[in-house]
Amino acid sequence: MSHFNAGRYRESAHWQARALAEHPSSTWIHATLCPAYGLGGQKSEAEHSLHLLRREYPDLTVEAAMAAYPPVSAAYRERCARGPAWPRLAFMNPS
Description:
- This protein is mainly α.
- The chain has one domain (2-89).
- It is 59% helix and 0% strand.
- The protein has six helices and no strands.
- It is globular, with a radius of gyration of 12 Å.
- The N and C termini lie far apart (32 Å).
- The model is unreliable at 90-95 (pLDDT under 50).
């Protein structure tokens, strides 16, 4: 989280992706990985991360994801909750 807080989104995404590779069943990591990818300008990775998160949690909303975050600052939550962090979430407006 320190990389994310410092605005080093690509570095944050790198370490989160590494943790996910070591613990593939920890799909909830995508709730913080997706915003790191998005804010780091890695749109396709953000979209893929979001897809994997939605596959595991099909009824997830941005609000529910934010409520389930670990204890983080309001600024952290704010950056995670707004675009382009979540690539204009399909689940904000389900089709």
